[in-house]
Design goal:
Largest sheet: 3 strands, antiparallel
Number of strands: 7
Helix content: 55-70%
Structural class: mainly alpha
Strand order of the largest sheet: 3-4-7
Strand content: 5-15%
């Protein structure tokens, strides 16, 4: 009987150590000893597996939190990249606009320079006053064949207009009043 009590106490300690409840303990006393040891070991295994499952759940929660943080970082980086791309596109468009305006200004400047040069070569300048050619009455009479009606272009309120050639070049129409 002493052996049974000693065995029951050791079994009770083993069962409590493995985390069994009071109802399990009363169940153990009604079962045979060999079956009780197997049951105590199974309860211990269940408790260890429960702890392991809880630890794994905690690890999974940590991993999910890390994943969420990484997703947020990726989102921020994507937004930064999009903003940088947009700024680069705007800078490129601005540079193209400036280049076009510069080219346009250069073309305009060249065109104006050519026109100015053309005016300089076609007209004689003296200071800022334009010089005109003077013709004598005899030169005009000779060029218009004494104001021939065949060279007459038209009549206006200021006089009659004639076509003529002066000094071997086509001259603008002459007007005689």
């Amino acid at each position: 009987m002493r052996k049974v009590l000693l065995l029951a106490r050791s079994l009770l300690v083993l069962v409590r150590w493995n985390g069994a409840s009071n109802s399990m303990i009363s169940l153990l006393f009604s079962i045979q000893y060999s079956h009780a040891i197997v049951l105590v070991l199974a309860i211990g295994q269940i408790n260890r597996l429960s702890k392991q499952q809880l630890e794994e759940k905690m690890k999974l929660m940590e991993i999910m939190d890390q994943e969420e943080k990484i997703k947020q970082v990726v989102k921020l980086e994507r937004e930064k990249a999009e903003a940088a791309s947009k700024a680069a596109n705007q800078a490129l468009a601005s540079a193209r606009r400036e280049a076009y305006q510069r080219r346009d200004a250069e073309r305009k400047s060249i065109r104006e320079a050519k026109q100015t040069e053309k005016l300089r070569t076609s007209t004689v300048y003296m200071g800022s006053i334009q010089q005109y050619q003077h013709f004598t009455r005899e030169e005009i009479l000779s060029a218009t064949s004494s104001f021939s009606p065949s060279l007459m272009i038209g009549k206006g309120s200021n006089g009659t207009v004639y076509k003529c050639e002066l000094r071997h070049r086509q001259a603008p129409p002459c007007m005689y009043t």
